[in-house]
## 1
Amino acid sequence: MLLLEVDHPRFIEARDNLGMFAELVKSPEHIHTYKITELSLWNACSAGWTGERVVNVLRDLSKYPILPNVERNILDFASRYGRVVLSHSEDEYLLKTDTEDLAEDLGSNEKLKKFFTARVDETTFSFPAQERGRLKLALIKVGFPAHDLAGYKQGETLKVGLREKTLEGLEFGLRPYQEYAVDAFYAGGTAEGGSGVITLPCGAGKTVVGLASMRALQTSTLILVTNTTAARQWIREILDKTTLTPEEVGEYTGYTKDIRQVTIATYQIMTWRKNKTEPFKHMELFNSRNWGLIIYDEVHMLPAPVFQYTADIQARRRLGLTATLVREDGLEEDVFALIGPKKMDVPWKEMELQGWIAVAVCSEIRVQMNEATRREYIKSGKRARPRVAAENNRKTQIAKKILANHQGEKTLLIGTYVDQLKEIASGMQTPIITGQTSQGRRDELFSRFRDGDLDLLVVSKVANFAVDLPDASVAIQVSGSFGSRQEEAQRLGRLLRPKKDSRQAHFYSLVTEDTVEQDFAMKRQLFLVEQGYQYLILDEEEL
């Protein structure tokens, strides 16, 4: 564990360095707590860091000497990245270690030896092509992540270009960090590239990175997204910014199933089946064409069945896109093994300072309970208390105050509990979008919001991901999913597209005072604090 003093003059320098090789665990007002893990070190190594560089940074920044055993552990775990290399030679796949001793250890490991078909020499084993993904998963579990140089299938050729002007006649070109992201993923078409994750803030143009990767590879592409709204946004972006035609782009969702050279499918349709004993019949989409690239949008949301199938398609190039690699299920190691390591991760505040995303002010508003709600909270059991606190009806009054302070600004009121949202939407006489809202109605309301016909929209969790509302500048979060860091990041992300008038974005989180919701709020904010954001803590009177 590492403790970082917020008031230290070198705080920002230390925070930015720690973010490269450590994970933020707690972020109270004066002292932030980080931990260094095997995975955080391996991601740093994949980005070009070494164990020696990590140790030198810690020595430079630390108030006290680093314990020798800590340095040794850092050097040991960092050195493991690259000690096991996967390659492809003629008609066989090979695993090669850097020493005979390591080969002995891996060859005798019960979790690994079942994958090997033969021992080729003192440091090399052969294994079946279809076991490439599962072998990589097993290797990372025993502490030796594979450096996969076994190569990829070229896939079906598809000519993809990027426009210099969009369909509306606006100038279009890659931003410097987007070019860097594509170069880091593509790596000149060599086996060093072709699989990995790009992490960029919402509003920074992750979709454009995907389009530019398609141009680099010139191949048919399968794109997996969170929902139908996201699928149609991808289609609009493809047609607006690339030379592909509508006949070359297909939607594969619950509404339509067109398989074309570029196909956008949802995670929901891929994991649909009649019952728990039936197979996932739409998984056949992975084999329906000779895909040269598979893009996983919001890769931190990847469902387990898609993970399992991804283990079988390691010969396809794979690009993960996300604003945060935080997974509440703890499967970050699986993303590393099956999709690839982080290829790029830029602190959100750095992008804000460069003007690529909107300046955002985050405020946590502590809301009191009236006497009746407090009695209900006290009498409720442990499982019921979070909802009682979240649905505190005083939040509606506070939300109205905030709206009065931001009259004329595009505002999203976001929450988790549908009954609460329906009551608020009814009282404010504004439309609401929930999981029960038809896709046609969602498209209509999002369009009205974008076009300026609506200034306020109440939305449930369905709007957490991949909803493109570029002019939204205010979000009021009335309830959240317990301590979900990824949800907090995604909800702020709805506001981060730069505004035409350079307006600040404001993110308000309404939290019931002296309840479990206050504890959850601290956990939810961790990722954003790591990115450089600070939450103003205000009582409702101060608002």
## 2
Amino acid sequence: MRLNRTFACLTAVFACLPSLMGWQNLKYPVEAIPKPLLENASVVVRLSELQVTIANPGSMTIKCREVRTILKEGGVTASELQVGYNSLIRVGAISGTIFDARGEKVRNIKSDEIIDFTAFDGFSIYSDTRVKFVNPKHYNYPFTVEYQYDLTFKTALYLPSFYVYEGSETSVEKAVYQLTVPSGYPVHYMEFNGMPPCLIVPAGKNNSYSWHYENFTAKKSEPYQADPTELYPYVLLSPGDYSIEGFSGKADSWEVFSTFFHKLLDGKQALPGATEDHVKNLVSGMDNDHDRIAAIYRYSQTKNRYVSIQVGIGGIVPFDASTVDRFSYGDCKALSNYVMSLLKVAGIRSYYTLVYAGENNRPVRQEMVTDYFNHVILCVPLNGDTIWLECTNPYSPVNYLGTFTDDRYVLLVSETGGKLVKTPAYSHDNNSAVVFSDVVLSADGKASVTQRGVYSGTYYSEQQSLTLMDEKDRHKALLRSIPIPDITISNCEIAAKPGDPRVISKKLAFEANNCLTRSGDMLLVKQGLVSGTQSVPVVSRRRESPVVIKRNNMAIDSTCFHMPAGYVLEVIPQDIVLSNDMASCSFSYTIDGNRLSVVRKLGMNKGVYQAERFNEFRDLLEKIARRDEERLVFKRVTM
């Protein structure tokens, strides 16, 4: 009996062994994800691992391993892989594996699923950049995809930094960054926002720098949010020494770092004699530098067009001014160098300037020297003034910086060493929209509207874009901009303001239907009929990030309502001011005969405010919106 029982137990154990061994071989089961990482998440990064090795200033390799669990359809794009490369970057073999929710392997990514194509951006005339792309096309959620690949660089200049945050609704279970360099090779790094400190370990003839971060919970996208680098852990890294196709540099200081870029400009300012003569004739008789700069800038704008040059070191080196002059095109580097060369002929000094451009600008940490930049503009210092030139935009006025390059640190490049300076920030006065609307109402619900608007700062670029559209697209854009559904536009005129090309004016006339609501012998019209209703973000019960208002701005809408014939205003609304230190809005009302003027002034105040104050800010916007929605009541006059 005892033997039979023992045999039966052994049989049961052996019967279970395949199942037990299967569990041991499972990888990335979804049930193993810590519960806090599932909250607010569409994607969980199970592992993000970079192993970076710098052999010398001109050679670097990166081994990448990425494991992502896609929890639902909203995160499916995270299952894709995109790896860029060019003549300076080579991609090794790519492998990929898909696992189901239990962690069992579904299949391997096949070689014919790895698509290789040119990274065409629509404006690069020369580019050797290509992309290897994988879309596993797996939609049985949740599932996990693992990728491994290697990159080989012909320079250490592009040493990657280490970021934990990978986007909204994305948790990170484990992130690892390891950098191996020869002993004595200088590495600059700085940790931010609670990143655990670096672990430095000597390894024979090398030194190893490593960072680990675990259990980063998913974050929701929040309105008026700060840049992720202001909020979440990351490490900035910079190679102490680097070389690229015969050019070498260091990142010991901003002065030293900028000399590398100055070397890339050596010998590239020469212009043909005929062009030099043309420039001299162009500015002849002009008695101030502002006029000379404007004339030369306009000459380059009308002569040249922007293209992108992305071939090897062409991504950071401009081609020379004589080439731009001959072919009449260039990228941001070449066109900035070209205008700099033209100004030099006129005896005006300017500086090639590196900037991180874009609406969501990446903050530059002054204390950490590294290559933050993705664009080049021109800085022209004058006595008591500084002129900024965006050389790629043929329509940009002199000294206009919109949301693309305003209010951020930039690096001026010179032969004696560059320095960080800041581009101008907008004030309320130079970032404004002032619109006067004359609204003639009729008792049948229709309205005849004429508008006159003056726009500066960021509002300028919004209006200028209309001038660059064809008539059909401009008409559609105008219809979208007017908050009345049924209108017919009869006239639109847009032009730069005489004397200040950074200010644009617009005249608009249209007929509108269904503007009034009838209630017995009364007609009602919304106060914000033509100015619109203030947008209000949703309530936040657990706001995490500070409230960031990026720019000062002022919007003034003055609307004169002509009352329908035979009607009078029943009640004049009370003037009101709604304000706190983040924003202020006033409504004032004046009646003159059959005309009622409503003046609405809304100003936003640039700043960073505590997260706890978001709902206070939102409540203010909601009060403004309610006032915009309030109805003016016109009552029929009894004869």
